[in-house]
């Protein structure tokens, strides 16, 4: 079965990789042109405007020439900067030691926020140490704080730092806190889908292809890849060895320096660069 790339997801991926480097709002006409190679042919205004504006991620704005366009909100830029550290940071880097624990309490009258909290903590890569106790490596504290504040969920959460002292070995406990088999399958699926694309680019050598082709392959790979670091980069070093060939960053990931990635970065907007795209959806 072929992978499905939703228009909304591709729009977010585009803004993370290219759109935020544009000198001002991205004109709607340019969005239409730049999303066509990856199969987005629906009206961009309908795809971007209602869902993204409602979540405070994209805002309508005029370019210097007066054309209608969309710009990132300050909250969205913070989200993308947090995503950069996950997607493009060295696979072995970890800032700080120990763990961050999240414990939340939501009044019954606002119980719908419990689901939002659980889904956002899971999306950030937290595991569940016990009912109501969520755990992640301590280096995720800043990003967690930014996310909870942006979603106005901070008043319901207490965050703690600590160490795992026993009684099970930490690597064994991690196997309970996260579903490592599921993480491995996600990476295997990525490699199966995009590994052949990498090999086809390597076979070309230095032959210059149409820039649109490099841009298409890169954006599609990034759209597939950008969610995986939110799961596996939350796993502490040495604790995710059961993921087999999916361990670490695949050679064909957009965070590596593959052939199509190098060419794609120069094929889009003037002065643009592929800095990252978070799990903003």
Summarize this entry quickly.
By secondary structure, the chain is of the alpha+beta class.
Characterization of the model:
Helix 1 (7-17) packs across helix 9, helix 4 (74-87) runs antiparallel to helix 6 and helix 5 (112-124) packs antiparallel against helix 6. A hairpin with a 2-residue loop joins strand 5 (127-130) and strand 6. The chain has 281 residues and is of the alpha+beta class. Helix content is 44%, strand content 12%. It contains 11 helices and 7 strands. The protein has 2 domains: 1-94 and 179-281, no CATH class; 99-162, Alpha-Beta Plaits, CATH 3.30.70. Residues 242-248 and 265-281 have low confidence and may be disordered.
Give me some keywords for this one.
disordered C terminus; 7 strands; 2 domains; alpha+beta; four-stranded antiparallel sheet
Mean pLDDT: 76
Q: In percent, how much strand structure appears in the residues?
A: 5-15%
**Regions with pLDDT < 50 over 5+ consecutive residues?**
242-248, 265-281
Order of strands in the sheet with most strands: 5-6-4-7
Q: What Rg do the Cα atoms give? A: 20 Å
Q: Percent of residues in helical segments?
A: 40-55%
Number of helices: 11
Biggest sheet features: 4 strands, antiparallel
H/E element sequence: HEHHEEHEHEEHEHHHHH
By secondary-structure content and strand pairing, the structural class works out as alpha+beta
Q: Indicate how many domains the architecture comprises.
A: 2
Distance between the termini: 23 Å
Shape: globular
Please tally the β strands and state the result: 7
